[in-house]
Each structure stands twice: as structure tokens, then as C-alpha cells.
Amino acid sequence: MSFATLNAQVPSASASASESPAASPETGKHHGWGRHHGFGELLKQLNLTDAQKQQVKQFFSDNKQAFKTNMLNLLKAKQAVNSAIEKNPSDESTIRSLSANVGTAQTELSAQRAKFDAFLQSILTTEQKQSLTTLQQKRDARIQSHISHLSQTNS
């Protein structure tokens, strides 16, 4: 989800060992792309060449400020909502208004993810694209499973 998370998970993209996936207390947990190590795992499963890894690293380097700004906006928006809820949980109007800012910030990050996905598609081989499609289908199936589970518990 965040550039820092993405950057730390791209093989050889981080500058220091403290940013490497192994440095995280959540090593081994895969909750989806961009969360914990899901994104790094995705790139690992695609078996990127060294040249492709360098291109990914360059993409993140070129887009670092935009990722950082949008992530900062998202975190500040979430913080504002949390603060409003804590201060006056019955002020639904303010909470809804501030929540809209969270949605806007999330939209910006989603657009950046789409930009990266388009970039990634442009550098993958046919075989890697097939692997990516399979991984996306597995992700979508997991999401559908969660949707089905939540739908059943509401019935």
C-alpha cells in the first residue's frame, strides 16, 4: 500500500538492511499486495531478471516523492478521522466529511498502483505475464472468499 512498504519489498530496492523484508516482524505473513510482504512475494514469484529488478527499482525511485506525498496524505486523513471519532463520536457529519478525505487519498494511491501495474506489464515476458495473471486470479479468489464469508455471516 505505501511506497515505503513497496520499496522495502522490491528485491535490491532498499538501501539498507534495516529496510529489507527480513527486518519486519511480520515476515512470512502475506495479506495481499502492498501489505506486509505480499508485494515483495509477488515480485519474487515472477522471477524477475536483474535488469527487470533494476527497472522496478528505478520506477520506485522516479515516483518516490509522489508515493510519499500520497501516503502521507492518507495517513493524515486517517489520523483526522480517528481524532474526530475519539473527540466526538456522535458528530457523524464531521466524521463522514473527514472520511471522504481518506477515500480521496486512497484513490490517489490506487491510481499510483495502477500506474505501476501498467509499467510492470510493460517489462514482463509472456511467461511472467501468465504467472502474474495466475497470481492475480488467486488474489481475486481469496477476496471473493472473504466476500462470501462476510455475506453469509450477515444472513
What proportion of the residues is helical, as a percent range? over 70%
Rg, Å, rounded: 18 Å
Q: Kindly, what is the distance between the CA atoms of the first and last residues, rounded to a whole number of angstroms?
A: 32 Å
Strand runs, count: 0
Shape: flat
Determine the mean pLDDT: 81
Q: Give the percentage of residues in beta strands.
A: under 5%
**Low-confidence regions:** 1-36
Largest sheet data: none
Helices and strands, with pairings:
Layout: H1 3-9, H2 38-45, H3 50-62, H4 64-87, H5 92-123, H6 126-154
Helix pairs in contact: 1-2, 3-5, 4-5
Index terms:
single chain; disordered N terminus; 155 residues; mainly alpha; 0% strand; flat
Question: Can you walk through the features of this model?
Answer:
This protein has 155 residues and is an all-alpha fold. The protein has one domain (3-154). The protein is 73% helix and 0% strand. It has six helices and no strands. The chain has helices at 3-9, 38-45, 50-62, 64-87, 92-123, 126-154. It is flat and about 55 Å long. The two termini are 32 Å apart.
Summarize the structure.
With 155 residues, the chain is mostly helical. The chain contains six helices and no strands.
